[in-house]
Design a protein that fits this description.
globular
């Protein structure tokens, strides 16, 4: 496993990280989730990402149990705040940030998280209030650093000029061969400001593994066939997308890679990407994804990827 620096933090994170969005919030049995965490550590993964809203605290509780007993300094733990946790608890106001960090720490069974992230931008709370509260969380030792996920570029820019507030070290955007929009503005801005990307859905929720065949039902043990985990896959499961992904198979073969390795190596080709977050429902998936660390793609392979996916990827 290779490691990269997380922005200006000085923290080194594994190029592949373990996420818990749909899997450990109820989509995967607790014992299998624990087995995936164990497999991640065995593979050299030191970065675990979650959020309070995943299963309304369920994912944090599973991870808190799975990580109990491990030396706290041996892993980098990230969680998030913004989405509703109840009918009245949501957003990035100062009271919510302070309330939700305490609740997350309790579920995670730890005194601090390494990275506390704003899951989205809160249009209903003044930016100064949000940044001030995050700065207080860091000063209190409850988080070492802060990050954001899917913030509009103009809001990122506005936050960077506020005086006396904590600096961001990370951005968490959706980014994959099929979803390239961060390349236009977010990545260039973050490169200039010392902010790393930790990208979610680098395998396009498993579609870039090539296991979904156009015109055929998804495999019975796949995310697309799961009622609890398939809710965000409609666009990805369209025939033109699946047909284009099938054209990647010979590209991967010529590169001597599996399809997941190709997809993960593609996002990691960006030096501003510190880590690619992958979900896993089985330990063997964790090991397979971890094997992408350190792989590189030559110029011919990058051209072949673009030719295969031309017309279906989003810029």
């Amino acid at each position: 496993m290779n490691y990269r620096q997380l922005g200006s933090s000085g923290i080194e994170v594994s190029e592949i990280s373990l996420g818990s969005w749909l899997t450990y919030s109820g989509g995967v049995a607790k014992e299998r989730a624990k087995a995936c965490v164990d497999a991640a550590f065995d593979a050299g993964i030191n970065f675990i990402d979650t959020a309070n809203v995943y299963g309304r605290g369920a994912a944090e509780e599973v991870l808190g149990e799975a990580l109990a007993g491990r030396e706290r300094s041996s892993y980098v733990l990230a969680t998030k705040v913004y989405f509703p946790m109840s009918d009245t608890d949501r957003g990035l106001s100062a009271p919510q940030i302070h309330k939700q960090i305490d609740a997350s720490l309790q579920r995670l069974r730890t005194d601090y998280v390494d990275l506390y992230q704003c899951h989205r931008y809160d249009e209903d709370t003044p930016l100064q209030e949000t940044m001030g509260a995050l700065t207080e969380v860091v000063a209190a030792g409850k988080a070492r650093h802060i990050g954001f996920s899917e913030w509009p570029v103009e809001r990122i820019e506005a936050s960077l000029v506020l005086p006396g507030v904590e600096r961001w070290v990370s951005s968490q955007p959706q980014y994959s061969m099929l979803w390239r929009s961060p390349e236009a503005e977010v990545i260039p801005l973050c490169e200039r400001e010392g902010i790393s990307q930790i990208v979610w859905s680098p395998l396009a929720q498993g579609v870039l593994s090539g296991k979904y065949t156009p015109g055929q039902a998804p495999p019975p043990d796949s995310r697309a066939s799961s009622q609890s985990m398939s809710g965000f896959m409609d666009r990805l499961m369209q025939a033109p997308v699946l047909e284009a992904v099938q054209r990647l198979k010979p590209v991967a073969e010529r590169a001597g890679m599996t399809m997941p390795q190709l997809a993960l190596a593609w996002v990691l080709r960006q030096s501003n990407v510190a880590s690619a977050i992958v979900g896993a429902s089985r330990p063997e998936q964790v090991r397979a994804n971890a094997s992408a660390s350190g792989l590189t793609l030559d110029a011919d392979t990058l051209v072949a990827v673009d030719e295969a996916l031309g017309g279906v990827y989003i810029r």
